[in-house]
Amino acid sequence: MDLFSATQYLLFLAIVTALMKPLGRYMERVFSRKQTALDRLCLPAERFIYRVAAVNSDAEMTSKEYATCFVLFGLVGTLLLYGILRMQQFLPWFFPQYRTTPLSPDLALNTAISFSTTTTWQAYAGENTMSYFSQMVGLCAQNFLAGAAGLAVGVAFIRGLTRQLSGTLGNFWVDLTRALLWILLPGALLGALLLVWQGVPMNFHHYAITSTVEGARQVIPQGPVAALEIIKNLGTNGGGFFNANGAHPYENPTPLTNLIEMLAIVLLPAALTNTFGRMVGQPRQGWLFYCVMVFLFSCGLIFADHFEQKGNPRLAGVNFRSGPLHSGGNMEGKEVRFGIAGSTLTAVVTSNTATGSTNSAHDSYTSLGGMVLLVNMLLGELVFGGLGTGLYSMVMTAAIAVFLAGLMVGRTPEYLGKKIGPAENKMIMLYALAAPLFVLPLTAIAVSTRAGLSGLTTNTGSHGFTEILFAYSSCFANNGQSFAGLSANTPFYNLTTALAMMVGRFALAIPALAFAACFARQRNTPSSSGTLPTHSFLFGVLLTACLIAMVALSYLPALALGPILERLLFGS
Asked: Is residue 480 within 8 Å of 239, Cβ to Cβ?
């Protein structure tokens, strides 16, 4: 790692660390319904929404009611978006001469599920498939709504951990409305202005037609790019206005926009650790989670940077060292304006969160560099993670670590003054086993059937296996990025990846809410000399070891057949 790369990484982490505390305090005040600076603007809009939607903001919901609202909200959003996509040729701002990729029923369904679950998996090219209306009213709106719904579930989860002898977790509609009005809308407005300032387009013009120097005809897409670009990152959604995603100069024109977009992805999930510490009344608990996240994030950065800077060792005589006249390393599939450092930072940020906003071709990474991104997703979307999902993923893993520690010392496991009994353990196991029970069988079906193997149009063998494993891991993690060598726009992949998205969204949120409800029904017990301190350095080590062990036990054979075997066979 050279000095420039290290400086860029440290600057990014320093900015995140400096901003996570004030943002965490702000979100705690928003969801605790305390006074904030935006109340004068947001409170009238909130009251209007409740009046129109007939929502009783003082009513509380049980975990089942909260989960039901969350699932139904996602399903209704899916149906509305599916309708928009199927009828886009009859809606405004549709330019048929530029729509070269048709939206088949299975592709429209896959896309609708993708955006309503914050996955934003793209088996289509945005500029050649979607109209401006579909992008703004359909996809952009779901980026706001799905992101806010995930944040609402995360807050309800925290609220359940803090309550005593209570059967409720809050009100989904109130949490959803506050997430939209107080957090996502102001953040998106500020971020969009910054992107427009840096040159990201925001218009509804027809595509520009020009001639190249050679005299060829070139079509230059236009559109409301800035509006979609900021919320896809802020809401941890992903999905590009253009097929090239963040590598397109309209989506990501400068190194500053690259930094702004990466900060937009990480800041809210990182700040939620501080919100968690404040709401449970133990700030050190939140700092412990943040430190574990930063440690794992830094490890991913160091390893990915090392493997990409090292390049392919089989290319004898090639100088892979960076210098003043060249970036060195494996530059295949990377933008020269971002280089190894900017590409690696984006790849690690997006693979650790639920955001498939990429600025390089991950399929062109070295085998071990790509494995870093795959392992980040297999960790379970908890290193920062998505809005809400990252925090409750980390807490559920911490509960496993507490349970293991309790077994070692022969005591009933306790976390935040509550006992982890049989009911809580059932929810933990459902949560922990969901990913391997879906990702691995779907991968096995794909690699053993003609329909699955037909998607491997450019690669076979170990790399082809990695492409398929990466696809299902990404969809289950509601991430959305891919190894683009897999041709995923087929009925088989459109339907199976949609299944992975739905399970990854709802089959994790429901056990998490049930776990929080079990905690809410308990009474706090005072700490004793035998209570494991869950804010100590020792517990942080135990939590980190538990995370690594879970991934290794679940996925090491699959990794051995994919990126590890590719490295041994081809040396890249």
From this structure: yes
Contacts of 387 (CB under 8 A, 6+ apart): 118, 147, 148, 150, 151, 154, 179, 235, 236, 268, 269, 272, 354
Find, among 391, 419, 416, the residue nearest to 403 by Cα: 419
Neighbours of 460 (CB within 10 A): 12
Within its chain, how far is the Cα of 272 from the centroid?
14
d(Cα 228, Cα 431) in Å, to the nearest integer? 32
| pTM, entire model | 0.91
Neighbouring C-beta atoms of residue 496, cutoff 10 Å: 22
User: Please, where are the H alpha helices in 280-365?
Assistant: 283-310, 339-352
Per DSSP, the three-state class of 490 is: coil
Do 49 and 177 contact (CB within 8 A), yes or no? yes
Does residue 334 come out as left (phi exceeding 0), alpha (psi in the -120 to 50 range) or beta? beta
The tokens describing 515, both together, are: 């776990």
User: For 418, which DSSP code?
Assistant: E
Poorest-confidence range of 42-46, 172-176, 310-314, 400-404? 310-314
Give me the pLDDT at residue 555, please. 92
For 367-380, the DSSP string reads HHHHHHHHHHHHTT
Q: What is the pLDDT of residues 251-308, one digit of tens each?
A: 888 889 989 999 999 999 999 999 999 998 889 999 999 999 999 999 999 999 888 8
Locate the domains of the chain by residue range.
21-273
pLDDT at 529: 67
Output phi, psi for 438, to 5 deg. -110, -45
Tens-place pLDDT, residues 401-416: 888 887 777 677 888 8
Question: Among 97-111, 133-147, 481-495, which is the least confidently predicted range?
Answer: 97-111
Angle at which helices 461-476 and 367-378 cross, to 10°: 30
Contact in structure between 129 and 111 (CB atoms under 8 Å): no
CA distances from 248 to 264, 484, 563 (A): 18, 16, 28
As beta bridge partners, residue 219 has 209
Say if CB 276 and CB 160 are below 8 A apart: no
Report d(CA 516, CA 424) in Å as an integer.
Answer: 9
- Buried-exposed string 507-533: b where 16+ CB fall within 10 A, e elsewhere: bbbbbbbbbbbbbbbbeeeeeeeeebe
How far apart are the C-alpha atoms of 250 and 261, rounded to whole Å?
13
> What is the C-alpha to C-alpha distance for residues 177 and 51, in angstroms, rounded to an integer?
12
Supply the Cα-derived Rg of the chain in whole angstroms.
Answer: 23
β-strand partners of 220: 208
Q: 17-37: per-residue pLDDT in tens?
A: 999 999 999 999 999 999 999
Question: In 3-state terms, the chain is what percent helix, strand and coil (to 5)?
Answer: 65, 5, 30
pLDDT at 340: 87
Output the pLDDT for position 572: 60
What CA–CA distance (Å, rounded) separates 489 from 139?
18
